[in-house]
Amino acid sequence: MKRVAPVITIDGPSGSGKGTVASLLSMRLGWNLLDSGALYRLLALAASNHGIDLANEELLRVLATHLDVQFLPAEAEYSQRIMLEGEDVTNVIRSEYVGAGASQVAAWPAVRSALLLRQHAFRQLPGLVADGRDMGTVVFPDASLKIFLTASAEERARRRFLQLKESDSDVTLGSLLDDIRKRDARDTQRTVAPLKPAVDAIQLDSTVLSIEQVLGRILEEVAIRDLLKHSGGLK
Ligand SMILES: Nc1ncnc2c1ncn2[C@@H]1O[C@H](COP(=O)(O)OP(=O)(O)O)[C@@H](O)[C@H]1O
Ligand SMILES: Nc1ccn([C@H]2C[C@H](O)[C@@H](COP(=O)(O)OP(=O)(O)O)O2)c(=O)n1
């Protein structure tokens, strides 16, 4: 019988550390990585490039279906290179402007359905680490391990500020806290696939935990579930 690849999901609000931890975890396990938020970010950027209104659900659905994207394996320590229509947009899609657009396009049911198959295609042996908002609730409800990662809004804004201040001299801590609160509200209150912990998720508050401590907690759960039994141990 064909073995189905196991999945670990990491969901949570912006700045909780999902992307960093998912990327490190996928490298430690030697598993594939799905940064689902990048898909929504790419769609928002493509819409802006093609002059498509973020309120036009039908045009966004068509764009999502035909989105020309590539995720190239990490060359640097922990980042994939992300291409849109042949152009490297790895850094461009990380701006708060694109993040806010992503949160808007992500509220449309037709957009979410159009991106579902693409997300399932990342599920390949030996396993997948998937991060986002609805990985454990909607996209991979049968995941072997589900983590819901949080941190206080103030700590998440502080992290984002440290991350963005080098490349964007306009950002302030106050404006980022405001953006984070707006995005939290939109992502948790939408009708389809809202941000919420799966009933079987382990909740981790990273406010006072380091990245290594969060990774350590997740690796403990991986060991408890014996998730590496087919893939030859940690890298
Ligand atoms: N536990 C942590 N403690 C301190 N900084 C963190 C922690 N987790 C992540 N960070 C930093 O916070 C920023 C946002 O993390 P990221 O992984 O992009 O979050 P998310 O994907 O949840 O939005 C990054 O600069 C990252 O290095
Ligand atoms: N599985 C997902 C992933 C992201 N989204 C939406 C909601 C988020 O505000 C945007 C951007 O997601 P992303 O994970 O890249 O954002 P953060 O790194 O957490 O700030 O996309 C979603 O609706 N479902």
UniProtKB/TrEMBL annotation:
One Gene Ontology cellular component term attached to this UniProt record is: cytoplasm
Residues in the signal sequence? none
Cell location: Cytoplasm
UniProt GO molecular function: ATP binding; dCMP kinase activity
Ordered alphabetically, the record's keywords are: ATP-binding, Cytoplasm, Kinase, Nucleotide-binding, Transferase
Q: Do you know which Pfam families this protein is assigned to?
A: Cytidylate_kin (PF02224)
- Write down the InterPro entries for this protein, in alphabetical order: Cytidylate_kin (IPR003136), Cytidylate_kinase_dom (IPR011994), P-loop_NTPase (IPR027417)
Enzyme Commission designation = 2.7.4.25
Q: Which domain of life is it from?
A: Bacteria
- Nucleotide-binding as UniProt keyword: yes
**What name is this protein filed under?**
Cytidylate kinase
Q: Which organism is it from?
A: Azomonas macrocytogenes
Q: Lineage, please? A: Bacteria, Pseudomonadati, Pseudomonadota, Gammaproteobacteria, Pseudomonadales
